[in-house]
Amino acid sequence: MLNAVLVVIRPEIGWARVARREENFLVVALIEWVLLALVTMGFESWGMIELGAGKNSIGGAYNLSLGRILNYQIVYLLLFSLFVCVASVLIYFSVKKDIIQCGFYYLAGVVVYLSCPVLLMKMLDAFPGVNTWFCFMMAIVLIVVSTYAAIPKILFPNVTDGFSIFIIISLILCGMLFCCHFINVIKLKIG
Length: 191
Fold this sequence. Notes:
By secondary structure, the chain is an all-alpha fold. It has one domain. It is built from eight helices and no strands. The protein has helices at 2-9, 11-19, 25-50, 66-94, 104-114, 116-124, 132-155, 162-190. The longest helix is centred in the middle third of the chain and has 29 residues, at 66-94. It is elongated and about 50 Å long.
């Protein structure tokens, strides 16, 4: 879980540590991602139970039932996992195989690490005074910064192709995660 957090907070150091891993890269990334997801979703659930969620019409936080919160978190985890998988496939087929020298599982592990800022920003979402879209936009900025640091350290593209890979990965990943967040916000609002 430390590498997943370092990739967000100190991308240069985090990606250097990740790059040293050779064996079972995707498995290690998934284990760290699941641990981070459980911690952040647990913290967000605690915040929703203890502090309330969102703003009601008079400016105070409204309370949600435990069942509704658990339903929201389970759907979020499943949709988030699905969108990360779809983003991995889209990125793999969007980037020419001769530009980067890695296989699908390695690239999927990179995408898993790149999705970690969204999970960390969910911790801010635990506080009802912080807008969920503000947290999401902060996560998008962190994804872009982390992607920029990951390209030369992890994917080793040609110098001329590095920027196009950066744009492709950033747009696909941010678009997929936006869809996931939007669906979950709507789900939480309507029950």
